[in-house]
Design brief:
Elements (H helix, E strand, L loop, with lengths): L6 H22 L4 H27 L7 H11 L8 H13 L13 H7 L3 H9 L1 H5 L14 H36 L8 H6 L10 E2 L13 H6 L8 H7 L1 H4 L4 E2 L2 H10 L22 H14 L1
Parallel strand pairs: 1-2
Helix pairs in contact: 1-2, 1-8, 2-3, 2-4, 2-8
Length: 306
């Protein structure tokens, strides 16, 4: 557990990379739209997804000791995403940890109308992935006890608009188009977009959270270690593999995914996979039965080993 201030350097590097690519591709103009799409899919999507991990760690205050500085890092890492989402994400993501599976508090659960609209049709699920950034915006309004407007969200909005304006001025609209494509691919119809399915979509009601242990973790900053993260949200991204190595008997026995690409195709084309494949809590079932005892045992054993 602790903080990793070196994460700030990664944020600087990735934001610089995306800004430089936007400048270079923007100078080429829309005549090279096909090249922009290729670079956005092959490079930009991974870069933007990595920034989501940096924002995620900043929201959990895992980069610097000060909450204010962590929020500023999250806003900075959010710049190439074009739309201001870092602070808003932090508001409902922390609720996801404390109210996982509660429809009235967890924005990670699909809207009922959303799940019914998509159904189990492959083309509808593909479109859901493609427009996932827009779909996400429809979820927070249904949540209870959330204030989605504060001064930090205003700062996030102001910084994002200023960055977008600078991109248009110095890189042209083509440069902004590249960033929009990178953003859309990073959480949409792309192997890294399968993370949204990997984390909590399940056909087994006895396991509601899954980890991914495939090779893309190397460039996605261990975002696949999701069971580990939910067990210990105060462990930064770089130490999550160490947690699994320290307690393999707790994690190797759980079902997990080895391929985001395979999961993406399986979710789209398997009619048994729908947006309803989630463990949803009710007032009579606020926690997984017996979940507290294994967690306490894990805490005690890890303390003894270290």
């Amino acid at each position: 557990m602790g903080r990793n201030p070196w994460t700030l350097l990664i944020a600087l590097a990735v934001v610089s990379l995306q800004t430089a690519l936007a400048f270079l591709l923007g100078r080429l103009g829309f005549g090279y739209w096909w090249l922009m799409l290729l670079v956005a899919y092959g490079v930009g999507a991974f870069a933007n997804h990595a920034m989501y991990v940096l924002i995620h760690d900043a929201i959990h205050n895992l980069i610097l000791p000060s909450k204010r500085w962590n929020k500023m890092i999250a806003i900075f890492a959010d710049l190439p995403n074009v739309l201001p989402g870092a602070i808003g994400f932090g508001v409902y993501h922390l609720k996801h940890h404390s109210h996982q599976g509660d429809y009235e508090y967890d924005a990670d659960l699909a809207n009922d109308w959303e799940a019914r609209l998509v159904g189990n049709r492959w083309y509808a699920k593909a479109l859901w992935f493609l427009f996932f950034p827009i779909v996400q915006l429809t979820r927070p309004p249904r949540l209870k006890a959330l204030c989605m407007w504060n001064r930090w969200i205003f700062i996030n909005l102001l910084c994002a608009l200023s960055y977008d304006a600078a991109i248009v001025i110095f890189c042209g609209w083509a440069g902004l188009f590249y960033l929009v494509c990178s953003f859309a691919f990073s959480i949409g119809l792309h192997p890294v977009g399968a993370r949204w399915v990997q984390e909590h979509y399940t056909k087994d009601p006895d396991q509601e959270t899954y980890s991914y242990y495939g090779p893309i973790n190397k460039i996605c900053l261990n975002m696949g270690y999701h069971n580990e993260h939910h067990d210990f949200p105060t462990i930064p991204w770089n130490n999550l593999p160490r947690l699994r190595a320290l307690a393999p008997e707790y994690y190797d026995s759980l079902k997990s995914h080895r391929s985001w690409s395979g999961l993406l195709f399986r979710f789209i084309f398997d009619p048994e996979y729908t947006l309803f494949c989630r463990v949803e809590r009710t007032k009579d079932r606020e926690a997984c039965p017996g979940a507290e005892k294994p967690r306490e045992a894990l805490l005690s054993e890890l303390a003894a080993r270290s």
